[in-house]
Structures are given as structure tokens and as C-alpha cells.
Amino acid sequence: MDIFRVLTRGAAINKKADGVSKGKGVDYSMNKAKDAKPTEREEFQMAKELDFFRNKRIVNKVSNLKEDEGTAVAGGESDEDAGKDAEENEGEDDEDSLDFQPKITNQKEANALRKSYKGNVTGEDVPLPIGSFEDLITRFSFDKRLLNNLIENHFTEPTPIQCESIPMALKGRDTLACAPTGSGKTLAFLIPLLQQAIDDKETQGLKGLIISPTKELANQIFIECIKLSQRIFLDKKRPLQVALLSKSLSMKLKNKVISDKKYDIIISTPLRLIDVMKSEALDLSSLKNIIFDEADKLFDKTFVEQSDAILDLCSTKNLRKSMFSATIPSSVEDIANSIMLDPIRIIIGHKEAANANIEQRLVYCGNEEGKLIAIRQLVQEGEFKPPIIIFLESITRAKALYHELMYDRMNVDVIHAERTPTQRTKIIERFKSGELWCLICTDVLARGIDFKGVNLVINYDVPRNAQAYVHRIGRTGRGGRSGKAITLYTKLDSIAIKPIVNVMKQSGCEVSGWMERMSKLTKKEKQQLKNGQRHPTTKDGKDRAQISTVPQIDRKKRQRKQDMIEGSKRRKYRDSHKDEEKEDESS
Ligand SMILES: Nc1ncnc2c1ncn2[C@@H]1O[C@H](COP(=O)(O)OP(=O)(O)OP(=O)(O)O)[C@@H](O)[C@H]1O
């Protein structure tokens, strides 16, 4: 069957005459522009307490503020000019010129606000949340340039996690924060971090460190941080400096080509940071804040030693620590309590639930062959609407599905740990621009990555556990949009599927009687899952059939053809990317 033809029929894409997207002038109907308004129906469907992104127009007073200090944000001026303006404007942000009234002034208002978004905040002496970004001005002398940068980027109202965690951080409190995927946790830690770096302008050297488990996520946080730190100068000549600890920067730091005193905020993966620290190329003695994004990942068995090592390297007294994730198991809470001082615990919604904007579905496929058939059925029924992400449990299986769908002439590519950083970045760019419709990947992309318009997530293989499920499906339904997640399972997944059913229940999905009954894990099954044994008889994944519905003989022929195409592609790719590869190696 020529899946491609069916796919293009079912995909419901609008070919725009004016070609909005970068790629081939194709715009997915579901891939809305950043500031596109939801339809009335969508708006209606969004439960009030789940509308984290109340798209209120920029309040008048804030737009007045922008006009008042237009020079500091006007585009096209040189950094130096901007620096002068910024310097001249300093001290003007007194309360007289900005008579904003804070929205949340007392405990009663705070309680009502928390109830509206199902926020549960506990700890000693918990500060009031903010009800709007304006509240920051009156309560914390928030920097006008930072507020402008928020507005310029269309961040006009804080999301619930931002309402809570920003004041906690600005009050200097350690925080453990859990909020749904796609609900704005990145800004929740970046906004106060930037404000604190501005407040602490006398200090030369690193003040804030953000640790992220993957390069892709570190890069994404860096980009957000750059957006918010535009045109902010700490004194006449010195802009607020943010850096991603890339291979090339770490080399420069090690070789003393760049002074480590240059940066105010650094974003890094654990290993890269430890590597730089081993060479004593980064001084952490002025560090005031450390943030662990995807904290449960950073404190699980893969990363815990590295995260501990990082904490050991941070010698500053009164170092403020924060942990953020969409899933915080109790083991991580225990760690948080052991390393933090009087932490405040913020939970938005239910701790083990998925984002409620995501429609979740399970599809029973009997066996491996059934999974491919299910994909083809989704295509035929018009449900396979790009952009789509498909998750698999291993590199081998991701590659196999990629070849299978390529053979069906679908517009797919694959990302896993064996692809080079350049390849990964390129594929992500193509997917973001709409040029690539379907991204196949392993769990390397399961966490944190913000692809705005993803329509559908397919778990081709059942995720390892409930947390992995929540993060994987969280690549859709982000920023207040709705999304769909389909999990394919076979008879081998009879145990592994149970935690997923439980997440569906916690997230308010309708769960049928049989699912309800099957969701209960026996003691033995719990132990099995703990040991990584996810189906009743054999060790995890070992006897899964290969991904293919094609007879052996055809498969071999097809493989030979595929190898030739791949070989030729690789040669072409190598020729055209020689320089980049060299750069990768040297950086
Ligand atoms: N106050 C806001 N107003 C409008 N959009 C926002 C706001 N805060 C964040 N966003 C947008 O929401 C999207 C999701 O945010 P973010 O990536 O921080 O989610 P997250 O909670 O960290 O998700 P995950 O758990 O998957 O990492 C981003 O596109 C971001 O730009």
C-alpha cells in the first residue's frame, strides 16, 4: 500500500498560497501561529482551571510602560546605545511612575487563586503568589527591562506555576515545584533568576546555574533565557551575560581564552559542567542559585551521582536550590528535603497526572505486526495528522520503524543517541518549521522539548513507567493547546500498561470498566516492574518481534535497496556537511 498517498489525504494540511512556513510553503492547519487565538469551541472546551495561558491582551498600563521607555527596547540600536539608555533609565522604575496595585494582597485572595488552579503550596511561612506580572513591580521592584522583554515575547499573564514560584524565588526560598508538562516551568525559574542577577549587579562572576539532563533541553532553556535578557545591562558597558556550556565554550574556558567571570548565568548538562569543574575552569564561589530542571531525572539512578557531585562543588553558603519537573516521585521529594533548607513545595494539579489538555487513548494491537497495521489505520482514518512524534523504547526499534515508514514513503526522520548533534539540531529545526511531518525518536526527546504545535504523540512502545509516559505525551497539548496521545500495546504489555491506565485515571480520562479492573497491580507485578521486567514471561523487550509486516524475502530485498539509498544519502550528507562536522569535532 502506498501509505504516503493515504497520508497526504488524511493529513488535512492546508497548502498556503503565501507559504507561511519556511519549508515548502506548507502550513499544518493545527500548527497555529504563536499568537493565534483559539476558536470559540476550543475556548469553551478548555476548563477554566486548566486555562494556564489566559490570553488577556496586554494590560494598558503595561503598554504605557513600554511606550514610556521605548528607547530601551527599540530594535536596531547598538548594544552600547541600549546600554546607555538602560543606564539612564535605571532608578526610574520607582513606584510613583508605575502605580500598579498588586492583585493578590492577602491570604484570602491567595487561597481563592490557588483554588482556581488547584495549587497546593506547603512549607514554613509561604509568601503570597502573584496574580499578574504587575504584582512583581509593586512587591519586588521588578526590573522594567525584564518586564518589557516578557511583554515583547507575548508573556502577558503568569501561569499558575509562575504565580507561585516567582515570589518564592524572589524571597530567596528553596523550592520543589511540580506542574504539568507545557505549563511554563522554564519561565517560572528563569524570571526570578534573571531578576536576582540584575539585583546582584555588584557581584562579578557566575550567579545562576541551570542544570538540564539533555543538550537539546539545555539549548532550549538558553534560547528562552536570551529572549528575556535582551538589552539588559548591569552597568554601562556590561550586559547581563547568559551562556550555554557547549563543548566549544568549555574548551575556551579551559584554555582561558574567555574569563569565567564574564557570565552571570550558565546552563549546562551535568557531565559538561563536571568536566569543566575538573579543570578548575569555572569559579562557583559567587553562585547564588542552582536550578535542577527535570529534577526527577537528574536525581534518578542515571544522574544522581553527577547531580550530587555538582552540589558538592557548590560551596557557597546560603545557596538557593530549586527543583522543577512535571513528575516528582516521593524518592525525589526525600532527596529535596535532605538538601534544601526550609523548602516550599508547590504542586499544581495532581502530582502523577498528565496535562489535562491531552486526549489519551490506548489501542490494543495483539502483537507487533498489529502495531504497524494500527499506524496504517490511523493514516487511513485521517487521524495521523502532522506534526506527529512517535516514541519507541530502543535505538534499534526506532531505526526499524523509520525504515518501515520511509519505505511507505512517509515524511519521517529519526532522532536517537547515535545521531550527531548537528543531525539532531537539523532534524529538530525541520520538524519545527513544518518541513518534516513525523518525528520518530527514543526517550532522548521525551522531556522538556517544546515543539509548539504537535498534534499527536504515538507511543509505539509502552513507556517504561508512569513518569516516562507523562513526559512523552507532554510533547503535545502545550501552552494551552489541545493534543492527542495514543499508546499502542500488545499482549506482552499486560503489566506495563497498568501504570499508564492509572495516569489516565488521575488525569480525568474516561476509563472503561475493564481498564479499571486491569489497572490494579499485584504485589508481584509491582516488584517485576521495579526490576525492569515489564511483561509476564521474559526479560524486557527480548522477545518482541521485529518491526515489519513484510515477508522475510521482501524484507531482505528492501533492506538492500534501503542500504544503498542510505549509503548514498550518507555520502551526500558528508560532502555537504564536512565543515559542520569539523566544527562539531573541534568544539
Ligand atoms: N506566561 C506565559 N504566557 C504564555 N505562554 C507561556 C507563558 N509561560 C510559558 N509559555 C509558553 O508555554 C510553552 C511551554 O512552556 P515550558 O516549555 O516552560 O513548559 P514546561 O512546563 O517546562 O514543560 P515540560 O514539563 O514539558 O518541560 C512554551 O512555548 C512557553 O513559551
TrEMBL record:
Residues 32-41 have a biased composition (Basic and acidic residues). Residues 357-519 form the Helicase C-terminal domain. It is an enzyme of class 3 (hydrolase). GO terms for biological process: maturation of SSU-rRNA. Its EC number is 3.6.4.13. The keyword rRNA-binding does not apply. Residues 87-98 have a biased composition (Acidic residues). It is found in: Nucleus, Nucleolus. Residues 18-41, 68-101, 522-587 are annotated as: Disordered. Signal peptide: none annotated. Residues 166-346 form the Helicase ATP-binding domain. It holds the Pfam family Helicase_C. InterPro entries: DDX52/Rok1_DEADc (IPR044764), DEAD/DEAH_box_helicase_dom (IPR011545), DEAD_box_RNA_helicase (IPR050079), Helicase_ATP-bd (IPR014001), Helicase_C-like (IPR001650), P-loop_NTPase (IPR027417), RNA-helicase_DEAD-box_CS (IPR000629), RNA_helicase_DEAD_Q_motif (IPR014014). Its main location: nucleus. Residues 135-163 form the DEAD-box RNA helicase Q domain. This is ATP-dependent RNA helicase ROK1.
